[in-house]
């Protein structure tokens, strides 16, 4: 992979070589700022749920400061906004997407970058379930925060939920160069590592008008890694990092914490689209992230000229401070 800085992308190069070869290459190219090792990334895993759950309580919760009232209302719909769901893919034919609001867009893996034909439903297809669920929460007709938005399937994780951070970075560069605006990236993935290149890429994406929303991680029960600042992309300075809550307005026990978390959103027992064409409940900060990505799409449909910084600021202004009590068992 390589970036496209001349086309508003990012100056980076991914290669496989021996350390001695890398040293020689850097000596020949003194303009290179640094090199760092690629690392594995994974979807932020879904957690055990109440399989009998059928309510869209997450939608109900985010439209009212006072809690659940059994309904979801929003003045905006997300129409005209493009959300790039970087995940295991999307089953774009799911009825939640009305046959046209989910588009096969891109596959990135160890073999390179493959752009999808808009009609190729096998390209960037979700054979896992994680990506379709996230996309449904963003823009599903009944399950979605922004039911007028368009979601793009960007498959950067395998069917088993794994990948490399370089795949994610290549996809970000692609969206910066080719993505339709206004654009949001939703990424419920990560790994316990810090990558300067990814941190800087997200800053550059923000600079060209792409709002990046990421999951905080499900390490809340870990004594050594509960802080979201220990993981990427949760620790990225210019990402909007999302923790998870329960229907009782408590922090979900699994949700990562710390000053890198910008906002909390519903994450436990979230019902959304499943690859089979039906619905399923999942839990995790993976489920909280698309609530905020959908909310970002609503703000951009109100005013397409809003910058990522303005989107984040308005999200925080419209959120409710001190609404979450400390963790109780889910």
UniProtKB/TrEMBL annotation:
<dbReference type="InterPro" id="IPR036852">
    <property type="entry name" value="Peptidase_S8/S53_dom_sf"/>
</dbReference>
<protein>
    <recommendedName>
        <fullName>subtilisin</fullName>
        <ecNumber>3.4.21.62</ecNumber>
    </recommendedName>
</protein>
<dbReference type="InterPro" id="IPR000209">
    <property type="entry name" value="Peptidase_S8/S53_dom"/>
</dbReference>
<feature type="active site" description="Charge relay system">
    <location>
        <position position="87"/>
    </location>
</feature>
<keyword id="KW-0645">Protease</keyword>
<dbReference type="InterPro" id="IPR023828">
    <property type="entry name" value="Peptidase_S8_Ser-AS"/>
</dbReference>
<dbReference type="GO" id="GO:0006508">
    <property type="term" value="P:proteolysis"/>
</dbReference>
<dbReference type="InterPro" id="IPR034193">
    <property type="entry name" value="PCSK9_ProteinaseK-like"/>
</dbReference>
<keyword id="KW-0720">Serine protease</keyword>
<dbReference type="GO" id="GO:0005615">
    <property type="term" value="C:extracellular space"/>
</dbReference>
<comment type="similarity">
    <text>Belongs to the peptidase S8 family.</text>
</comment>
<feature type="active site" description="Charge relay system">
    <location>
        <position position="130"/>
    </location>
</feature>
<dbReference type="InterPro" id="IPR023827">
    <property type="entry name" value="Peptidase_S8_Asp-AS"/>
</dbReference>
<dbReference type="GO" id="GO:0004252">
    <property type="term" value="F:serine-type endopeptidase activity"/>
</dbReference>
<dbReference type="InterPro" id="IPR015500">
    <property type="entry name" value="Peptidase_S8_subtilisin-rel"/>
</dbReference>
<dbReference type="InterPro" id="IPR050131">
    <property type="entry name" value="Peptidase_S8_subtilisin-like"/>
</dbReference>
<dbReference type="InterPro" id="IPR022398">
    <property type="entry name" value="Peptidase_S8_His-AS"/>
</dbReference>
<feature type="active site" description="Charge relay system">
    <location>
        <position position="286"/>
    </location>
</feature>
<dbReference type="Pfam" id="PF00082">
    <property type="entry name" value="Peptidase_S8"/>
</dbReference>
<keyword id="KW-0378">Hydrolase</keyword>
<feature type="domain" description="Peptidase S8/S53">
    <location>
        <begin position="78"/>
        <end position="320"/>
    </location>
</feature>
């Amino acid at each position: 992979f390589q970036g496209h800085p001349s086309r508003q992308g990012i100056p980076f190069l991914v290669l496989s070589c021996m350390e001695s070869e890398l040293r020689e290459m850097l000596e020949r190219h003194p303009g290179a700022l640094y090199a760092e090792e690629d690392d594995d990334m994974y979807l932020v895993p879904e957690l055990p749920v109440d399989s009998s759950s059928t309510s869209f309580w997450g939608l109900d919760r985010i439209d009212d400061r006072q809690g659940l009232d059994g309904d979801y209302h929003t003045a905006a719909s997300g129409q005209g906004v493009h959300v790039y769901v970087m995940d295991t893919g999307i089953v774009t034919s799911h009825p939640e997407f009305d046959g046209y609001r989910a588009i096969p867009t891109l596959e990135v893996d160890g073999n390179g970058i493959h752009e999808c034909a808009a009609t190729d439903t096998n390209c960037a297809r979700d054979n896992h379930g994680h990506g379709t669920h996230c996309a449904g929460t963003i823009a599903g007709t009944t399950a979605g925060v922004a039911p007028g938005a368009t979601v793009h399937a960007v498959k950067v994780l395998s069917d088993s939920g794994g990948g490399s951070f370089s795949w994610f970075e290549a996809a970000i560069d692609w969206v910066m160069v080719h993505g339709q605006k206004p654009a949001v990236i939703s990424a419920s993935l990560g790994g316990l590592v810090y990558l300067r290149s990814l941190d800087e890429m997200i800053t550059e994406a923000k600079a060209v008008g792409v709002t990046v929303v990421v999951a905080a991680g499900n390490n809340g029960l870990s004594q050594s890694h509960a802080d979201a600042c220990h993981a990427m992309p949760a620790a990225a300075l210019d990402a909007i990092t999302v923790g998870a809550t329960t229907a009782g307005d408590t922090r979900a026990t699994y949700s990562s914490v710390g000053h890198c978390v910008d906002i909390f959103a519903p994450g436990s027992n979230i019902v959304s689209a499943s690859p089979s064409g039906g619905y399923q409940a999942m839990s995790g900060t993976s489920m909280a992230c698309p609530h905020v990505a959908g909310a970002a799409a609503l703000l951009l449909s109100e005013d397409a000229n809003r910058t990522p910084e303005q989107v984040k600021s308005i999200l925080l202004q419209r959120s409710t401070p001190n609404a979450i009590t400390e963790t109780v068992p889910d």
